[in-house]
Backbone:
């Protein structure tokens, strides 16, 4: 009995922390219409700011708390809204998601830069003192956490339903233009709601930080756990959100207390399940909750659709890519060759997003998980370089992709993205660290395939092989895009509602494109593992999927060349890092910045470049005449954009 | 500075001078001149796509003219944001119900206080004129019938006591009896020295209260005058039959449909008069 009370108290305290975090998410979503994936990262950042004030500069705790929560947090939130979010307020769900993911990744990089990794102590309020409650020791920090949750619940309820500003925040989401016609200032309200969201994030971060030793990733991801609570509240309902948070806290606590840890239970997947409870709950909640209606009236502002590259054009690009890699590897040093190969392999993983996100408009946050499955299959079935390993990689990832997609098919936009994220997080805890897969904190060797009697043991030959694979997959994908399946895909991206009225079977389309994408990612993951020769669980974590998505979108997710661009940039990370050693993580910071500022150029870098070159070329060919000039212009355009030149 | 000019006051509240407006690169208004004075109800008529709504968007600040200018109470107002105009006495009820569907009736009324009245004043005025709304004060606005929703939207015109009122097709999808009630209210509001500019695709209902009619086609005003002075062919084309007071007849034939404010709100009054 005493034990039960103890675990209940622990669960309530954890649940209260989740509730504080989730309430911020719900407030930003229901008052600005944007799901802030970076919410946890904002809380993490603010916890570091608080640490700086309290521990490094020795301010009194209350002063540090006040300045962090009431000054720094709202100002940062307002700045984020003003400079990043406002530009994408009319953009598609995918774009807003990418921008907030960019913010999250960028914040992690920023914290690494300002506060280089080292052990930091953040004491709980009133130290570790506390009191006995029915025989259980409760710290004052616990009391404060529960008190904060209750206070925030009551305060938000009053604010959003009783004050005019609160009502206006909800009105702006309902109908922004009409709010203006009523005389409210929609822009100011948006800023306010992000300021409020950041304040709530900072409270959550500061309350949770002491327990997690102020470490960056656990702090960021712990608040991700709060997504499940927010989702139980359907991102709108605060009381339900709080109930959900309590449920998660209690479940986790009871799992620690009562899940047996002997026999079959003493395996990594089942132990990992404790950690994965929020992710599993998020996935389940997404599946069983009623969905928003299809919003047929929403017209997505889209640029003019450019034609897909024809067969000749894509072959041109493919040949060019392979030649360029052959030439480049002939003079690059060993280290640079490896970076190029890594870039090509990562580009291949990003290529899996092109049909799914670029053409089909669905966002996935688990491509690295599929890549990990591919690497795992290669390690298992590809012994001695058997090409069967590659087939197994594509097959396993494609099958798992279909399994994930099957229940998630009815989900749209944000919900689908979060479901894939939950899947990835659950795999991080339950599969990748097991001895079956990559072992805990260890790594396994990944063989390189040998095909047609060719062995790619040398770095250069394997890099050229990767280029050939990238070229072939691109050409195949573009052929798919030109066919009927590609047309359905792009119709789906334009308007699911319109497709439904035309009687197109989107369920099957989604399932197929999701499996194709997962299969490509798995196939690519096997080669990525082969490039590095070994692979470990951390390489395929959910967090690694975020730069994949970000850089692919920055390059241009609707183009194969965009994926290539993203891969090469990500592969060159070590090069940038050595050029700027004082920056904690150039890759994260740069990727985050690029993603967060996407609003300026939503189509990505490669399409923009392609457009410039095309207009330049047509200028030249207008002056020169004759077939020779046209040929020149054609190959120049092809060369500038690599394979799969044109976007959909 | 009053002039001996009969009943019409001199100073216009809304004044559009050769206004051109475009969506992107496509120009849809090709030079609109329009004046609305206090106590006047000007009805903008014309077929679908003529540009009526666009005129209201310009006049409410939602769309900035590409050429020409528009004045409010004698002041140049090109480029002033809609919320600023709203706070300074312009009340705009856009096409489709001008309410927040996810907020309750009371919360919708709270949103009307940006015009300067207190919450109590707004509620008192709205509930006094539309007792039905008082019964439904806690209901989410989106779940009310079309008639009730439009009453709620019109409550804003009552509560903010504007200098000018812009109404875009308020009769759309409503039963004739409700439409009559709404237009009666419009006439009362106008009598309170408010300048009213309204649009209707099918004019019959509006004609009873309009003091002036402007007929639009393809981004231009093709005829303007008192309702009974309109050329017969235009009247035929846009007013759904010959001439004037169709409103009374419409009201008469609507008796049989007196379930007015329920969800079964039928279409507008066109083509019904004998
Ligand atoms: N948001 C918009 N974007 C582009 N064109 C528009 C938009 N709104 C209206 N139009 C076009 O402007 C013209 C006038 O429209 P509108 O003012 O709504 O007409 P009305 O209200 O008289 O039916 C139409 O040709 C319509 O297609
Ligand atoms: Mg209209």
Residues:
């Amino acid at each position: 009995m005493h034990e039960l009370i103890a675990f209940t108290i622990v669960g309530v305290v954890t649940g209260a922390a989740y509730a504080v975090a989730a309430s911020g998410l719900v407030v930003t979503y229901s008052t600005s219409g944007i799901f802030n994936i970076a919410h946890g990262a904002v809380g993490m950042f603010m916890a570091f700011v608080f640490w700086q004030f309290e521990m490094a500069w020795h301010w009194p705790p209350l002063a540090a708390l006040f300045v962090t929560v009431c000054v720094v947090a709202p100002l940062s939130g307002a700045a984020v809204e003003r400079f990043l979010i406002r530009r994408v307020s009319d953009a598609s769900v995918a774009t807003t998601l990418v921008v907030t993911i960019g913010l999250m990744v960028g914040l992690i990089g920023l914290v690494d830069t300002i506060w280089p990794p080292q052990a930091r102590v953040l004491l709980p309020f009133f130290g570790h003192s506390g009191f006995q409650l029915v025989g259980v020791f409760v710290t004052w920090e616990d009391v404060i956490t529960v008190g904060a949750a209750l206070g925030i619940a009551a305060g938000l309820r009053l604010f959003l339903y009783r004050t005019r500003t609160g009502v206006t925040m909800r009105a702006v989401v309902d109908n922004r233009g009409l709010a203006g016609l009523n005389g409210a200032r929609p822009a100011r309200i948006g800023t306010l709601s992000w300021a409020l969201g950041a304040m709530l994030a900072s409270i959550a971060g500061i309350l949770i930080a002491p327990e997690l030793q102020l470490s960056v990733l656990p702090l960021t991801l712990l608040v991700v756990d709060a997504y499940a609570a927010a989702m139980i509240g359907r991102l709108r309902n605060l009381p339900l959100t709080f109930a959900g948070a309590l449920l998660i806290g209690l479940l986790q606590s009871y799992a620690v207390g009562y899940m047996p840890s002997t026999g079959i239970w003493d395996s990594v997947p089942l132990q990992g399940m404790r950690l994965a409870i929020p992710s599993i709950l998020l996935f389940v909640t997404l599946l069983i909750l009623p969905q928003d209606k299809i919003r047929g009236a929403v017209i997505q502002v889209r640029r003019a659709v450019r034609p897909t590259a024809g067969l000749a054009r894509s072959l041109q690009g493919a040949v060019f890519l392979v030649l360029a890699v052959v030439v480049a590897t002939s003079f690059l040093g060993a280290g640079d060759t490896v970076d190029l190969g890594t870039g090509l392999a990562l580009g291949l993983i990003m290529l899996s997003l092109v049909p799914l996100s670029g053409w089909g408009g669905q966002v996935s946050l688990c491509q690295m998980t599929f890549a990990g499955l591919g690497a795992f299959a290669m390690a298992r079935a590809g012994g001695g370089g058997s090409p069967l390993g590659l087939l197994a990689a594509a097959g396993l990832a494609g099958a798992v992709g279909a399994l994930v997609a099957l229940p998630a098919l009815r989900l749209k936009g944000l919900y689908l993205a979060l479901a894939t994220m939950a899947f990835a997080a659950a795999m991080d805890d339950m599969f990748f660290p097991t001895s079956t897969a990559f072992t805990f904190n260890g790594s396994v060797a990944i063989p390189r395939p040998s095909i047609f009697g060719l062995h790619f043991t040398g770095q250069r030959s394997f890099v050229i092989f990767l280029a050939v694979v990238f070229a072939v997959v691109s050409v195949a994908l573009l052929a798919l895009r030109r066919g009927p399946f590609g047309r359905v895909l792009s119709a789906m991206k334009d308007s699911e509602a319109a497709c439904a009225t035309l009687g197109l079977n989107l369920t099957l389309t989604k399932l197929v494109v999701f499996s194709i994408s997962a299969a490509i990612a798995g196939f690519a993951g096997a080669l990525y593992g082969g490039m590095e020769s070994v692979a470990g669980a951390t390489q395929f974590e959910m967090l690694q999927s975020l730069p994949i998505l970000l850089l692919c979108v920055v390059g241009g997710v609707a183009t194969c060349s965009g994926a290539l661009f993203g891969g090469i940039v990500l592969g060159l990370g070590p090069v940038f890092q050595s050029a700027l050693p004082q920056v904690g993580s150039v890759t994260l910071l740069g990727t985050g910045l690029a993603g967060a500022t996407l609003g300026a150029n939503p189509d990505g870098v490669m399409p923009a470049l392609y457009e410039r070159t095309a207009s330049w070329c047509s200028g030249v060919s207008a002056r020169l005449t004759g077939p020779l000039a046209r040929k020149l212009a054609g190959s120049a355009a092809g060369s500038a954009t690599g394979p799969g030149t044109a976007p959909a | 500075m009053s002039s001996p000019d009969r009943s019409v006051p001199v100073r216009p509240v809304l004044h559009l001078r050769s206004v051109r407006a475009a969506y992107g690169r496509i120009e849809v208004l090709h030079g609109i001149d329009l004046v609305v004075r206090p106590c006047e109800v000007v009805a903008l008529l014309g077929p679908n796509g003529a540009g009526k709504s666009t005129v209201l968007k310009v006049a409410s600040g939602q769309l900035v003219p590409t050429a020409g200018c528009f004045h409010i109470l004698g002041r140049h107002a090109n480029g002033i944001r809609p919320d600023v105009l709203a706070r300074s006495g312009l009340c705009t009820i856009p096409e489709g119900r001008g309410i927040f569907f996810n907020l309750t009736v009371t919360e919708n009324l709270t949103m009307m206080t940006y015009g300067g009245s207190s919450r109590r004043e707004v509620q008192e005025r709205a509930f006094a004129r539309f007792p039905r709304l008082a019964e439904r004060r806690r209901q989410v606005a989106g779940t009310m019938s079309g008639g009730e929703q439009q009453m709620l939207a019109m409550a804003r015109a009552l509560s903010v006591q504007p200098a000018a009122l812009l109404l875009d097709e308020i009769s759309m999808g409503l039963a004739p009896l409700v439409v009559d009630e709404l237009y009666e209210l419009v006439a009362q509001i106008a009598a309170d020295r408010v300048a009213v500019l309204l649009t209707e695709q099918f004019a019959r209902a509006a004609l009873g209260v309009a003091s002036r009619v402007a007929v639009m086609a393809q981004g231009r005003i093709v005829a303007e005058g008192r309702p009974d002075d309109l050329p017969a062919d235009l009247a035929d084309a846009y007013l759904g039959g010959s001439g004037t007071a169709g409103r009374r007849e419409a009201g008469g034939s609507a008796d049989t449909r007196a379930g007015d404010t329920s969800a079964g709100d039928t279409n507008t009054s066109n083509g019904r008069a004998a």
Residues 24-224 of chain A form one domain.
